[in-house]
Amino acid sequence: MTAAAPPRERGPAIPDPAPAPRGARRGSARRPGQLGWLFSVPALIIGLLFTVGPLIIIVMFSFMSRPAQGGGVIYDFTLDPYVSFLFQTDFVGNTTFDPRYLTVFGDSLWQALVTTIVCLVLSFPLALWMATRTEKLQNFLVLIVTIPFWTNLLVRTYAWMLILNDNGIINNASKALGFGKLEMLYTPFASQLGLIYTFLPFMVLPIYSALAGFDFRLAEAAYDLGAKKMTVLRRVILPIATPGIISGVLLVFMPAFGSYVQPVLLGGGKVLLIGNLIASQFGDARNWPFGAALSVIILIMLMIALMAIALYSRKSGRKVEIAL
């Protein structure tokens, strides 16, 4: 006969979970400090009214007709605002290709492209140097970079007008050195300089944010293994900084493309960019549908850029955030 197995020791009894309250659904339990979706309704309403609402109005206006006199729109659907971007119809009714607005777009693209390239060339070494400093010094350098945001853009632009005018610091130094007076204010150069100054922090901060968490001991290890400086920069550091570079390029290129203040104040109105053209359509020309159509075209370009960045992020596996 086999001996009976000894009885197993039982652990402490586990109490049954408390019954869920009547009417509660599965997955509806909130974590401590979590609020319900009803608390977000006011913010959603404000966002829809002041963000999505104006965009919808602009898109609707771009398909409306222009009144015979004065500003505003007539609620008759038409594609004339978009057709007039590329074609012009004379009094007889003949339609011909008109490249004037394409030229404005080309000038805007060129200034935005130059601004982006110069900001990238200046920002990458600065952001890399900032990321290799001590934590205390990094915080101080970030503070220095963000100081321009504390002052209104108009004030900073007027300061550049004082620097670049005939009696400014640069011209006084040029005269003292015997080079004579330099014509800088109210020129394309002044407008370009104002754009670079304005959007430089928008390139520095994303690149620095991408490099700040990088362990630079990996770069030292690459040096120890015999890699050259350019190889380390290209194979180790640049891939880490790529998301920040892409974010900075978009944050600089699109605002610079539609910029208004710098071409007007520093360029003296001699530099006609897309931002000035849109403002003139809503102001002097009182052609609201065409101004809205130009705004929609810029919006479409921005959406294409965002879609391209999302596609790159998905294929490369690198998370790209459009944020400072």
What would you say about this model in short?
This protein is mainly alpha-helical. 60% of the residues lie in helices and 2% in strands. The protein has a domain at 105-288: MetI-like fold (Orthogonal Bundle), CATH 1.10.3720.
Task: Count up the helices.
Answer: 12
**Morphology call:** globular
Question: Structural class of the secondary elements?
Answer: mainly alpha
Instruction: Name the average pLDDT.
Output: 83
SSE pattern, N- to C-terminal: HHEEHHHHHHHHHH
Which CATH class of the domain at 105-288 applies here? Mainly Alpha
Which strand-content bin applies to the residues? under 5%
Rg calculated over all Cα atoms: 29 Å
* Estimated helix fraction: 55-70%
CATH superfamily of the domain at 105-288: MetI-like
Low-pLDDT residue intervals, each spanning 5 or more residues:
none
CATH architecture of the domain at 105-288: Orthogonal Bundle
What is the tally of beta strands? 2
Major β-sheet profile: 2 strands, antiparallel
CATH topology of the domain at 105-288: MetI-like fold
Task: Quote the distance from N terminus to C terminus.
Answer: 80 Å
Which strands sit side by side, in order, in the main sheet?
Answer: 1-2
Task: Write the SSE topology.
Elements: H1 41-61, H2 80-83, E1 87-89, E2 95-97, H3 100-131, H4 135-146, H5 153-164, H6 169-176, H7 188-212, H8 217-224, H9 229-257, H10 261-265, H11 274-282, H12 288-316
Antiparallel strand pairs: 1-2
